[in-house]
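Page 42, continued from yesterday. The earlier attempt failed because a stray header line got pasted into the input along with the sequence. Redoing it now with the clean sequence only.
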Amino acid sequence: MLALIAAILASSEDVRFRAYFPGDDLFALQRPTGIPIGNLTSQLFSNVYLGELDHFVKQQLRWKPYLRYMDDFLLFGADKKELWAVLYRIEVFLAEKLRLRVHPKKRTVSPVSCGIDWVGYKVFPERVRVRRRNIIRFRLRNRKLRALFRQGRIGFPDIGQSVQSFCAYTSHADAARLTRELLEREVF
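This time it went through. Structure tokens are written below.
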């Protein structure tokens, strides 16, 4: 297993870069870092490696409104100063324990009253919504599928795949009524 992991890590030279973290000596700069993006194992590595971050946020910081998907995470709170302080503690933890950094241009503290666009959804502290543009995309795709079906170029299995994909997507949001209404309107 370790040989397989070593082969995966060595498979992509373009992800290699040198990074200095607090406490490093000169030998640390010679160790390559990174994994091939898009590799199926990157999802597994993300969940295993960042599981430590989850425990830190939930158990050490005792921060409950916290979401993470792969290497993206959200923290919810009412006090902007407190959120910046928590983010700083997370950044210190990531650097010291996991040798990771938060991208400075991809971090923000902002009000959630309008929701946060995150991993395909509109996320609020108490609910998750489907993005409006994804609903529009679903309707347009179904219009094309209906035309192809009428022409005899595709069958019901192709339509079923598209509908099942959309239903799986909406199942992760508070969208049961929306899904039902869309499926009732989108008749083939």
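Notes: The CA atoms of residues 12 and 36 lie 6 Å apart.
Reminder to self: strip header lines before submitting.
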